[in-house]
Amino acid sequence: MPGVVDVVQIPAGVAVLARNTWAAIKGREALRTSGTSSTPRRAARRSCSPSIARLRAPGAVARNDGDADAALAAASRTITAVYEFPYLAHAPMEPLDCVVQLGPDRMEIWAGDQNQTVDQLLASRVVGCCRSR
Question: Where are the domains of the chain?
Answer without folding.
Answer: 1-55, 95-133
